[in-house]
From TrEMBL:
InterPro entries: YjhX_toxin. It comes from Roseobacter cerasinus. Pfam families: YjhX_toxin. This is UPF0386 protein So717_42930. The lineage of its organism: Bacteria, Pseudomonadati, Pseudomonadota, Alphaproteobacteria, Rhodobacterales. Belongs to the UPF0386 family.
Amino acid sequence: MNISKHEQRVLHALAQGGAIHFERLPNGKVHKVFCVTRDGHVLTDCTLPLFDRLKKRGFIKSKRGQPYRATRAGITAVRAQLDNR
């Protein structure tokens, strides 16, 4: 599957233990997202349109209101890198 460079970068961070935190509007829609790596750094590549693409493809998922994490499909879609655990 074709994945853009920014999607790859975010999925790598999530595969290594990062999470996408979000803020919702009162009507329940997500209006602000930011990706935090396992080391606590924030990725600026994670934007709302990128978040929507990853969610639509089923690469990320949130359980019971927790931050979004990579799914099995998201981990397998990302290309292998030396720094992945």
